[in-house]
Design a protein that fits this description.
Layout lengths: L3 E4 L2 E3 L2 E3 L4 E2 L2 E2 L4 E3 L2 E3 L5 E3 L7 H9 L9 E3 L5 H4 L2 H7 L4 E4 L1 H10 L6 E4 L5 E3 L4 E6 L9 E5 L4 E5 L13 H7 L2 H16 L3 H13 L6 E4 L9 H12 L4 E8 L5 H15 L3 E6 L5 H10 E7 L9 H13 L5 E8 L5 H11 L3 E2 L4 E4 L4 H22 L4
Parallel strand pairs: 8-9, 9-10, 10-11, 15-16, 17-18, 17-19, 19-20, 20-21, 20-22
Antiparallel strand pairs: 1-2, 2-7, 3-6, 4-5, 7-8, 12-13, 13-14, 14-15
Helix pairs in contact: 6-10, 7-8, 9-13
This protein binds flavin mononucleotide (FMN) and fe (ii) ion (2 copies).
Length: 405
């Protein structure tokens, strides 16, 4: 893909990974991009590299614009493989470049590469690098989403190179938000933002609010936000900032995701009855069968909904594996501002739903009871129990949702 100028003499020179569907276990149905940026100033400066498997393409993109050996500075905003994997290859072409990285980034980088011959400069929030007409300011963003993470602000271009934050896993020939509107639907982009937030940033709501407030206090004007994945925000950068504030502040739709699995169909039968009950209360709902749905997609569905109910049959006194996988992933993500419930079918002593509630409790989630458990089949007289469970849950979700209106 050809380089694109995002500000005078500042270029996107990233690569597009159209085919990646498994991004460290996160299902990326729309692929992704690894964005990096070249500042063609008096001191040529590269911000980030690309994923190791795209090193050749990334280096060719760089060489199309400058002689790589003339690169003076290399900013490493984040040491995860998708941005730093190709670093050693790039450094072969630019051995004299000085690397700018956070303290934590440096110590992590030394675990990945033999860095003894490299010029490395540790930077912290507020440190500046003058490249000629441009001034780069570094802003550490620890735990957004790794301890080493930082952003780079280019003052004279009013450009924030935001690393993973504000990114999306979305491969597209469009580079900018306004181009994306022209060539496809905007809702696909909105969906990609929520998907990324749910799967990567959900645990960091508080940090996100604090960091955005901190950046606001710096009083720096932002015309363009250039993340390291997906579309660059130039038509209305405040929109994506507001979206992040909304998501961090608990924004969700008045809907219920019923997320479950089944061996012989009974838990599925229950899920359908529950869905009907929810709908009767005027709340929209969605069934998400786990073995038919990637975990990351189910997680996004949960995140979009004010309430979610997890269902599982009992298998050998415990939980069904796909449900265990989903809930285990949730333990790290710690969803807040939503209420949870549980249900399932069993044959004799049960165990799955008990396990679910133990997990909810360990995660300190807000749950509503009672749960619903049925032995073997959903008989005619059980249908009403499922409907009522759904109605009751929907009423509680409506009540809970008022807090956020
Ligand atoms: C391999 C296997 C192991 C099971 N282990 C248990 C168990 O330990 N305790 C229990 O109460 N039911 C157990 N069951 C029974 C199921 O929980 C019961 O059939 C339930 O209705 C299945 O729900 P489903 O149709 O949604 O898969 C087991 C079933 C299978 C197939
Ligand atoms: Fe990352
Ligand atoms: Fe990334």
């Amino acid at each position: 893909m050809k380089a694109r100028e995002i500000a005078p003499d500042i270029y996107w020179i990233g690569v597009i990974d159209w085919a990646v569907r498994d991004f460290h276990g996160y299902t990326t149905l729309n692929g992704t991009t690894y964005n990096n940026y070249l500042i063609k100033d008096r001191d040529i400066t590269l911000v980030d590299t690309v994923k190791h498997s795209f090193a050749d393409e990334g280096m060719a993109n760089l060489a199309a614009l400058v002689d790589p050996s003339t690169v003076k500075n290399l900013v490493v905003n984040h040491i995860e493989d998708d941005h730093m994997g190709a670093l050693a290859r790039f450094m072969e072409l630019m051995p004299k470049a000085t690397l700018y990285i956070t303290e934590k980034g440096k110590s992590g980088m030394e675990r990945f590469f033999e860095t003894s011959g490299w010029n490395v400069k540790v930077v912290k929030t507020g440190d500046e690098l003058k490249t000629g007409k441009y001034t780069l300011t570094f802003v550490e963003t620890p735990m957004l989403h790794w301890p080493d993470s930082m952003m780079t602000y280019v003052k004279e271009a009013e450009l924030l190179i935001s690393q993973d934050a504000f990114g999306q896993h979305l491969a597209s020939s469009a580079r900018f938000d306004d181009e994306f509107v022209n060539c496809a639907s905007l809702s696909e982009l909105d969906e990609a933002v929520i998907d990324y937030y749910a799967n990567i940033l959900m645990p960091f709501n508080t940090l996100i609010k604090t960091k955005i407030a901190e950046i606001g206090k710096l009083g720096i004007p932002i015309k363009t936000i250039a993340p390291d994945h997906g579309i660059i925000w130039r038509s209305n950068p405040n929109k994506i900032i507001q979206t992040y504030l909304d998501l961090a502040g608990g924004k969700a739709d008045l809907r219920v995701a019923v997320i479950y699995d089944t061996m012989w169909g009974s838990t599925d039968h229950m899920a359908r009855g529950i869905l009907e009950g929810i709908e009767e209360e005027g709340v929209s709902s969605k069934l998400v069968k786990l073995r038919a749905t990637p975990t990351s997609v189910a997680t996004k569905e949960l995140w979009k909904s004010r309430g979610y109910i997890v269902g599982s049959p009992t298998l050998n006194n415990g939980i069904f594996p796909s449900v265990a996988e989903f809930v285990t992933n949730l333990r790290g993500l710690r969803p807040r501002d939503r209420i949870a419930g549980g249900f399932g079918s069993f044959g004799w002593s049960g165990g799955a739903v008990k396990w679910l509630y133990e997990q909810f409790e360990a995660m300190k989630l807000e749950t509503v009871g009672p749960c619903l458990e049925l032995r073997y089949k959903v008989l005619k007289e059980d249908k009403e129990k499922c409907l009522e469970f759904g109605r009751d849950f929907a009423r509680k979700v409506k009540e809970y949702h008022k807090k956020f209106e």
